[in-house]
Specification:
The chain is of the alpha+beta class and 273 residues long. It folds into two domains: 1-49, no CATH class; 71-272, Chloramphenicol acetyltransferase-like domain (Chloramphenicol Acetyltransferase), CATH 3.30.559.10. It contains six helices and eleven strands. The protein has helices spanning 21-35, 54-69, 82-92, 104-118, 162-177, 251-266, and strands spanning 72-80, 124-126, 131-133, 139-141, 143-145, 148-150, 153-154, 191-194, 214-218, 222-228, 231-245. Strands 1, 4, 7, 8, 9, 10 and 11 form a seven-stranded mixed sheet that branches. Strand 2 and strand 3 (131-133) form a beta hairpin. Helix 4 (104-118) crosses helix 5.
């Protein structure tokens, strides 16, 4: 009662694609939040000058160095992530994961680790005289914080179980949010994820973290029409993309790596391999 008709922008939370009462209530509560957002007034000053220092200065230097040193190549692929969403739901209901944050980012992280093992050169570093292939994964997570963009990393993520990785990712994100990320947390990364989907973005062309060869972007996951066995069905679809250092990896390696990541999101059972 009091919710009126069901708007055509209500997104079904049911994996079967049915709009439930909870979906309508959730949509209405979100809409009321947006209605209460106040648009800031124009300031009295026509311009504002913000000193470039601290984290912003470091970000500017790192991104400029990366963008103008490493020749970036970017690729994208749409993925049916319905089974990933089902897997996430099962993990959330598992007693083993009680009290631990579980999201599609966890499966994405595990997919990248799995794909790195099959395509190790994406986990390399360029030194002008050598290509250093790292046989370990320090998995960076690009985090938007009040201090600016930070990229702390999970050390030796390749050795972690799914539960251990979930716990490590949760700690990393909480520390970043609370301003507890240390310099050591951000050192020696080997490959990075940027989860632009949390901002409602489908894809992007991220800039490489200096010293790394690959950065993977996970887009928003939302229901779309998808052809399954010759029939159009509602499925949870996302776009996986990324940027790579073309000095180190060519298009065939890049394509195989992204395809491997996508294959795990389509079928998480591959992680049993």
């Amino acid at each position: 009662a009091g919710l009126g008709g069901v708007a055509d922008d209500v997104v079904a939370g049911d994996l079967a694609g049915e709009v439930t009462r909870d979906d309508v209530i959730r949509h209405a509560s979100q809409a009321s939040v947006f209605r209460n957002i106040q648009t800031p007034a124009w300031g009295d000053d026509r311009e504002e000058r913000i000193p470039v220092r601290g984290v912003r200065k470091a970000i500017a230097a790192a991104m400029s160095t990366s963008a103008f040193t490493a020749p970036h190549v970017s690729v994208f692929v749409d993925v049916d992530a319905t089974r990933t969403m089902e897997f996430v739901k099962r993990l959330k209901n598992s007693p083993d994961f009680a009290g631990v944050k579980v999201s599609p980012l966890l499966i994405m992280a595990k997919a990248i680790i799995w794909a790195v093992r099959r395509n190790p050169t994406v986990n390399s570093a360029w030194t002008d005289t050598e290509i250093v292939v790292r046989h370990y994964v320090n998995l960076g997570i690009a985090a938007a914080t009040p201090r600016g963009l930070l990229v702390p990393n999970v050390k030796d993520a390749q050795s972690m179980s799914l539960l251990e990785l979930a716990q490590a990712l949760e700690k990393l994100t909480l520390d970043a949010r609370d301003g507890k990320t240390t310099a050591a947390d951000m050192q020696n990364g080997t490959i990075t994820i940027t989860n632009i989907g949390v901002f409602g973005m489908d894809t992007g062309t991220p800039i490489l973290n200096p010293g790394e060869v690959a950065i993977i972007a996970l887009g928003t996951i939302k229901q779309k029409p998808w052809v399954v066995d010759g029939e159009v069905r509602p499925r949870f679809v996302t776009t996986v993309g990324g940027s790579f250092d073309h000095r180190v990896v060519d298009g065939d390696v890049v394509s195989r790596f992204v395809a491997d990541v996508a294959s795990v999101l389509e079928e998480p059972a591959l992680l049993l391999d």
